[in-house]
Amino acid sequence: MQHDLFSSLDSFLSVPAGSGGLLIRDVTGQYRPAEADEVLLAAQQLLAAQVRGSDLMDSPAVVKDFLRARLGSLPHEVFAVVHLDSQNRVLDYVEMFRGTVSQTSVYPREVVRDALLRNSCALVLVHNHPSGAARPSRADEYLTQTLKQAAALVDVRVLDHFIVAGDSVNSMAELGLV
């Protein structure tokens, strides 16, 4: 089983999902019990399929479930972007930067460039805190404002910045920080 870092929704959907049970058919055609990482992959594929094309504002619970499953247990920081169309429907989820256990470098130029390439109208920023504390830091607040200003220069809105820590997902918009 591969343990590569998925970087977009397409990577989840490119591997066919299982039959929905806890058995997997191997290359010889025999069924065997699914391993934990295979079950997690199937769950992530299902959540990715539910997220793509969904209206972010109508399904925040689905998005939070997807983010929790994708980033909640990682031992290192990942910064990702959810790209939205003009109706706030999800175009894509892209993991842009990978860091260490306590930080990651984020480049506003690359975030804006990716938004333009995907023809995004709005963005939702996402990153995880492997420490387990979902509360945004001052650096998180500064980064959010920097990215919000950079995106605004090309008429792209930043709607929220989610922080995932284990089972917790905090919205900076809900905290009044966006």
UniProtKB/TrEMBL annotation:
InterPro entries found in the cross-reference section: MPN, RadC_JAB, UPF0758, UPF0758_CS
Domain MPN: start-end pairs: 56-178
Protein name: MPN domain-containing protein
Keywords: Hydrolase, Metal-binding, Metalloprotease, Protease, Zinc
SUPFAM superfamilies in the cross-refs: JAB1/MPN domain
TM helices/strands, residue ranges: none
Pfam families noted in UniProt: RadC (PF04002)
MF term (GO), any: metallopeptidase activity
Gene3D superfamilies, sorted: Cytidine Deaminase, domain 2
Alphabetical GO biological process terms: proteolysis
CDD domains: MPN_DUF2466
